[in-house]
Specification:
- With 74 residues, the chain is an alpha+beta fold.
- The chain has one domain (7-73): Metal Transport, Frataxin, Chain A, CATH 3.30.920.30.
- Helix content is 36%, strand content 27%.
- The strands form 2 sheets. A 3-stranded antiparallel sheet has the order 2-3-4, covered by helices on one side. A two-stranded antiparallel sheet has the order 1-5.
- Strand 2 and strand 3 form a beta hairpin.
């Protein structure tokens, strides 16, 4: 099993947009996304900081996507 990468927030957001997620609101530094099928997640956007492997794993769990599928699509 491959390890998840550490990514910039803008790259994760771009990936979510490609999957059909739309930004529904922002509260502070957290941007909330929703998919038409009901899946939701939030992404913290902090300048100069990346989304770590653990947080990326939590986001993938929120959107019900296996790590392997993410690595294939990304």
């Amino acid at each position: 099993m491959s390890h998840l990468p550490s990514l910039r927030a803008r790259d994760v957001i771009r990936f979510l947009h490609k999957l059909g997620f739309v930004e529904v609101r922002q509260k502070g530094s957290h941007v909330f996304f929703k998919h038409f099928d009901g899946r939701t997640t939030s992404i913290p956007v902090h300048a100069g900081e990346s989304i770590g492997r653990g947080l990326l794993s939590d986001i993938l769990e929120d959107i019900k996507m296996p790590h392997e599928e993410f690595l294939d699509l990304y």
